[in-house]
Design a protein that fits this description.
- The structure holds two protein chains of two kinds.
- By secondary structure, chain A is α+β, with helices and mostly antiparallel strands.
- Chain A is 29% helix and 24% strand.
- Chain A folds into three domains: 224 residues, Alpha-Beta Complex (Aldehyde Oxidoreductase, domain 3), CATH 3.90.1170.50; 245 residues, Aldehyde Oxidoreductase, domain 4 (2-Layer Sandwich); 137 residues, 2-Layer Sandwich (Aldehyde Oxidoreductase, domain 4), CATH 3.30.365.10.
- Chain A has 21 helices and 28 strands.
- Chain A is globular and about 80 Å long.
- Chain A starts with 8 loop residues before the first helix and ends in a 9-residue tail after the last helix.
- By secondary structure, chain B is of the alpha+beta class.
- Chain B folds into two domains: 74 residues, Ubiquitin-like (UB roll), CATH 3.10.20.30; 75 residues, [2Fe-2S]-binding domain (DNA polymerase, domain 1).
- Chain B contains five helices and five strands; from the N terminus they run E-E-H-E-E-E-H-H-H-H.
- The longest helix of chain B has 19 residues.
- The radius of gyration of chain B is 15 Å and the shape is globular.
- The chains are: A alpha+beta, B alpha+beta.
- Chains A and B meet through helix 1 and helix 19 of A and helix 1, helix 2, helix 3 and helix 5 of B.
- The structure holds FE2/S2 (inorganic) cluster (2 copies).
- One FE2/S2 (inorganic) cluster (FES) sits at the interface of chains B and A.
């Protein structure tokens, strides 16, 4: 194994990985969806007759056709009509009130509400045949006016669901702030920010393969973050007992939050597999993903931030109009993540955040790496820079004056969070020292006096985020088994989509048990092998599943000691565990390896549920950027990211994730965004030539550093890692550009900072006192 | 249409529809699923394979265009005895992969360049240019660049011996 840094590497580097699309299944049909090219309209006719005549096409159905299908042959399922898409209860991402009266059909019935919504499905002997069939489906949709932004939709002049307001959810965190606070404050800054819509874009799109088995069970393979949730939702939809469905997550090509639901296509494919009694798979392609996969972010924000003359924060108010897309089922409550984190790392006495989630004729919004925390950080950190400028204070100094002091943890925020631990000033100091803050400030001054030099800016962003999940979803399940042959099996409810669980978790278990790493194998992502689990989301795997495995290892040690005590007829206090063996404290007899103990006393296995508290990772990111006012281009000269995610299990893995995450953060700041036409159709005809993911060309020199403040929430002390760059980096870059341009109106710099945006901003009025 | 592809040294006599892209034929007909499809429109490079030693996007090439030609995929990168290619070892050592979905494409781009010019590591700009040609959403590219430099340095030192 020494050849490979990670256990995953051997197969992934030699072409032997097993992604869903790689699996060969006899008789498998490929599903292709016929999608609406219109964002809002009445479905008049979906004619599948011609498509059914295409050679190699096995079946074609619209929603109406499926409701006419005879009740299914599959013994275990009670099915008639194609079930609708379930809503997400986890972390209050959606609510029963929000979805009441707003059904999300897996295939659109009488109305389409976003461009890309599926209106028919074709299954064929292979993808080519199915695509041939899809091309023959005749769809007639009468367009209705589309509402594309929250502000347009909130007026309810066009309703997505007749008789129901487009505003599907309202919420708040904290207490409303009295007007007198703003009137009496020495300084108040106000701004509006747009958190543009982003595509999570894992390099593998969504995948699902449903295989009805001989014994009446159903096996579902999917690149997924939450196999147990998928099993539960599918069982409910199909009317099947939970234990009749097995969900397996094989190799998964990235997820970034976007692969954790039962999507309309999943519902349709699984339904068809059961109805037809034949394996069916759907391998989403990129252009399809670009219209019909969930998006992230999507908030219009208004902020007010007040301070006294010394720069001590008095009050912060954040109002969010969230664009949650056409259906409230997956993310109508997601903006609450922003509201709850609105306080940020500062000891602001009054903070109030309010959310209005509005339905629009666009695809649905759902978590994307950061999931609500980037939006909170960007709004607050951009405002902090504005305030610093107004006060004539160095932005680093303003932040230092307001950080929650390290000795004040646990800290109850006005927006309802209880931060577990932190040392925000230490992270900022390390970031400033690493980048050479004073040197860059001197360079900035020099350039401001040199008419030929390009303007340079330095941007700071201090963040605190939340990891592990929300109350009710902070636990997971883990088990450890010791076998006669010396192997140790570790099981947990997580599911990796590239986070190296197979390497990190066995190392953790081996260290806890004191055995050689090569003895420990991880099993996860298979609901038969590990019957209960929550999954991998909210940066929780190390924090929650790591702690659960750590805990289970300790239970296994206790059990082994009890077994040995019975075997030897001694009190358990006289049995010790070390290096994978039990031995008697007093008599000098040799230690007995756990494998020998299993041979002598039978299988040794423990299972438990472990509950963590919420973790609050934090950090400070600093960017230096140079702007060309004539071309509108931004060149990031240097980026330093300092993250603190408590105790780190595998530093190389965490750094790798921090680095990749920072590049995604650069993507949000400078390049990525989904442009919609007024008709609600995304303007992305050129695919990934129009939606600009960062390539190596766009990656500046990035330095990743860390501080370590353990979390008291678990004995392991780990907090979540991996989302830091998406959360901390965008504001650092935007602040650097604003600092370079010295513009008076921050509203002119809305992400992504394309050459067009920057060129215009470079021509706008500078703030008072600008040089 | 009847064609023969020579993939990683083995002959595959195939009967394929002219419209089928090389990537699909490699994956479905030859069952070599190491070549991945990340965009199917020529941008991401996940599908990169070598055709007669040249890196091509196998989503943009028809299988019939490769009749009688030699194709190399990630499955053919290791030595005959299974000894990993220097690039495979270097990618692992530098953590140049996380989910591994883009990896076969980067490996083949680099393998083609390294074989065409074993001294490519002497010019970091050219290595950077290779990394710029494909998309990875996980790593942020820097580890991939380091891995290619490491493999190139190793090949160079082998040559000098
Ligand atoms: S799949 Fe061929 S370039 Fe993306
Ligand atoms: S390692 Fe996941 S896309 Fe490159």
């Amino acid at each position: 194994m020494e050849q490979w840094a990670r256990r995953e590497d051997r197969r992934l580097l030699t072409g032997r990985g097993q992604f869903v699309a790689d699996m060969a299944v006899q008789n498998c049909l490929d599903a292709v969806f016929v999608r609406s090219g219109i964002a809002h309209g009445v479905v008049r006719d979906v004619d599948c007759a011609a498509a059914r005549e295409v050679p190699g096409v096995v079946g074609v159905w619209s929603a109406a056709d499926l409701s006419g299908l005879p009740a299914c042959a599959h013994a275990a399922a009670r099915l008639q009509d194609l079930p609708p898409v379930p809503h997400t209860l986890l972390a209050k991402l959606s609510t029963a009130e929000a979805v009441a009266g707003r059904e999300w059909p897996a295939l659109a019935k009488d109305r389409v509400r976003y461009a890309g919504e599926a209106v028919a499905v074709v299954v064929g002997e292979d993808r080519y045949r199915a695509e041939d069939g899809a091309a023959e489906v005749a769809v007639r949709i009468d367009p209705l006016p589309a509402v594309v932004t929250p502000s347009a939709a909130a007026g309810d002049s066009v309703l997505l669901f007749d008789g129901l307001s487009n505003t599907a959810f309202r919420g708040e965190a904290g207490t409303p702030i009295e007007e007198t606070v703003w009137q009496e404050a020495a300084v108040v800054v106000e701004a509006r920010y747009r958190q543009q819509l982003l595509m999570p874009t894992p390099m593998e799109c969504r995948t699902i393969l449903a295989v009805p088995e001989q014994d009446g069970r159903l096996t579902v393979w999917s690149g997924h973050q939450m196999p147990h949730r998928l099993r539960r939702e599918l069982a409910a939809l199909l009317g099947m007992p939970l234990d009749r469905i097995r969900v397996v997550v094989p190799d998964t090509g990235g997820a970034f939050g976007s692969k954790s639901a039962a999507f309309p296509e999943f519902v349709t494919v699984v339904y068809l597999a059961v109805m037809l009694g034949r394996p069916v798979r759907w391998i989403e392609d990129r252009l399809e993903s670009m219209t019909a996969a969930t998006r992230g972010r999507g908030q219009d924000q208004r902020v007010r931030l007040a301070a006294d003359a010394d720069g001590h924060l008095l009050a912060y108010e954040l109002q969010i109009d969230a664009d949650v897309g056409a259906y409230p089922h997956l993310g109508v409550g997601l903006p609450m993540q922003t509201a709850w984190m609105a306080t940020g790392p500062y000891a602001t006495p009054r903070v109030h955040a309010s959310v209005r989630s509005v339905l629009t004729n666009t695809m649905v919004t759902y978590p994307y790496r950061g999931a609500g925390r980037p939006e909170a950080t960007i709004a607050l950190e951009r405002s902090m820079d504005l305030l610093a400028r107004r006060l004539g204070l160095d932005p680093a100094e303003l932040r230092r004056r307001n950080f929650i002091p390290a000795e004040d943890f646990p800290y109850q925020t006005p927006t309802g969070r209880c931060y577990d631990s932190g040392n925000y000033a230490a992270a900022l100091d390390l970031a400033l020292e690493t980048i050479g803050y004073d040197t860059w400030r001197a360079e900035q001054t020099r350039r401001r006096h040199d008419p030929r030099a390009l303007p340079l800016g330095i941007g700071l962003s201090c963040y605190v985020e939340r990891s592990g999940g929300e109350p009710g979803g902070l636990h997971d399940f883990a088990g450890i088994e010791a076998h006669e042959d010396g192997t140790i099996i570790a099981r947990c409810g997580a599911a990796s989509s590239g986070q190296s669980h197979e390497t990190t978790f066995p190392a953790l278990v081996a260290a806890t048990l004191g055995v050689d790493e090569s003895r420990v194998q991880l099993i996860e992502g298979d609901t038969d092998a590990q019957p209960e689990g929550l999954g991998s989301f909210a940066s929780r795997s190390a924090q929650v599943d790591g702690a659960a495995l750590h805990h289970a290892s300790a239970l296994l040690i206790d059990l082994a000691r009890e077994r040995a005590a019975d075997l030897w007829g001694t009190p358990v206090e006289e049995v010790e565990w070390s290096d994978g063996s039990v031995h008697h404290v007093r008599d000098g007899s040799a230690a007995m390896d756990v494998a020998e103990l299993v041979k002598a006393t039978g299988p040794l296995s423990v299972d438990d549920r472990f509950e963590s508290g919420m973790g609050f990772p934090f950090g400070a990111h600093v960017a230096v950027a140079e702007v060309d006012p004539e071309l509108g281009t931004v060149r990031v000269l240097r980026l330093v990211v300092v993250d603190d995610c408590g105790v780190v299990l595998n530093p190389a893995i965490v750094r790798g994730q921090a680095f990749g995450s920072a590049v995604q953060g650069i993507g949000q700041a400078l390049y990525e965004g989904i442009p919609y036409g007024d008709d609600g159709v995304p303007l992305l005809a050129g695919g990934l030539l129009d939606y600009l993911l960062p390539t190596a060309t766009e990656v500046p020199p990035i330095e990743v550093k860390e501080t370590r403040t353990p979390s008291p929430s678990t004995p392991l002390g780990a907090k979540g890692a991996g989302e830091s760059g998406c959360i901390g980096t965008p504001a650092a870059i935007v602040n650097a550009v604003a600092d370079a341009l010295q513009i008076a109106d921050p509203g002119l710099l809305q992400m992504p900072l394309t050459p067009d945006v920057v060129w215009r901003a470079a021509r706008a009025a500078k703030y008072e006192g600008a040089r | 249409m009847k064609i023969t592809l020579t993939v990683n040294g083995d002959d595959y006599p195939l009967d394929v529809e002219p419209r089928r892209i090389l990537a699909d034929v490699l994956r479905e007909d030859c069952r070599l699923t190491g070549t991945h499809l990340g965009c199917e429109h020529g941008v991401c490079g996940a599908c990169t394979v070598l055709v007669d030693g040249q890196a091509v996007r196998s989503c943009l090439m028809l299988a019939v265009q490769c009749d009688g030609r030699s194709v190399r995929t990630v499955e053919g990168l290791a030595g005959p005895d299974g000894e990993p290619h220097p690039l495979q070892r270097a990618f692992s050592a530098e953590h140049a992969l996380q989910c591994g979905f883009c990896t076969p494409g980067f490996l083949m781009v680099a393998a083609g360049a390294l074989e065409a010019d074993p001294a490519i590591g002497d010019d970091p700009e050219r290595v950077h240019g290779l990394v710029e040609s494909n998309i990875c959403r996980c790593t942020g590219y820097e580890p991939i660049r380091r891995a290619i430099m490491r493999a190139a340095a190793e090949s160079a030192s082998l040559r000098r011996r």
